[in-house]
Hints:
Chain B: InterPro entries: Class_I_gatase-like (IPR029062), PRibForGlyAmidine_synth_PurQ (IPR010075). Chain B: Its main location: cytoplasm. The complex is a heterodimer of chains A (about 80) and B (about 220). Chain A is about 30% helix and about 30% strand. Chain A is α+β, with helices and mostly antiparallel strands and about 80 residues long. Chain A has one domain: Mth169, Chain: A, CATH 3.30.1280.10. Chain A is elongated. By secondary structure, chain B is an alpha/beta fold. Chain B has one domain (about 1-220): Rossmann fold (3-Layer(aba) Sandwich). Helix content of chain B is about 20%, strand content about 25%. In chain B, strand 3 (about 45), helix 2 and strand 4 (about 80-85) form a beta-alpha-beta unit. Chains A and B meet through helix 1 of A and loops of B.
Amino acid sequence: MKAIVNVYLKQGVLDPQGKAAHHALGSLGFKGINDVRIGKQIVLDVDSSVTSEMIKEMCETLLANTVIEDYDFELKP
Amino acid sequence: MNVAILRFPGTNCEFDTEYAFEKLGHTTQIIWHNDKALPENVDLVVVPGGFSYGDYLRSGSIARFAPVMQEVSKFAANGGKVLGICNGFQILTEAGLLPGALKRNTNLHFISKYQHLKVVSTDNSFLNKCQKDEVIHIPIAHADGNYYVDNEDLTKMKENGQILLKYCDPNGKEKSINGSVESIAGVCNETKNVFGLMPHPERAIELLLGSDDGVKMLKGFES
């Protein structure tokens, strides 16, 4: 099984990398972009004993810093 | 004073820190991250700068789980004094020993230069030898120094005198350097025994090298 975890800065917390990419896309002439947020995707290869609760605990403990980051994840067979 | 200086894989300021405290006449000991105990009679634990665990995942996020950090948490909970410099500050926020978090600098650059700082609070065992509103000049060197804390915590920290240092210009006017909330460069915890700052006082202890403003900062722990 794969656990696919996405971590990104919370709404309201300025994302300097997203802002730079947004600016660069605008400079390149791409129109209609309201906002860019850059996060990271963490892919865990796990066996079937790993539950959603365990993934949540991993996110809260290590994978995300919940002071500034939100996360979501899905478990895929 | 007995100073314990932690070393993780990737730490690179432990010898500067050792040099600074020994120059001030203190006994130092470098402690490996896998150690399961701090030496007895430690007066101050310093978490020095560097790139612990390559800054992987987030700066300080892996180091906080090192065995020695469990001991540092206990030491701090019992009122022991802890100082985190640069990467050490990041480790202490990740460990929850200090409020807030440190993000990538707004301009995305690694900033390495001498920087003016304004002393905000002196009512603590770190900056008691500095004057309030005094402007000091010491080096900074970081990519993730953009301090974030939410408004609620910021208000509490201000009321409790937990904001220690702010980036400023030579005249003491606050200046945004890396995007930090209210230009904050250093903070302490509620009980004022855990301190963290991005600038490097241990690199400013010889006039020959540009500044000795770090001396009065580190000497604060003597009293």
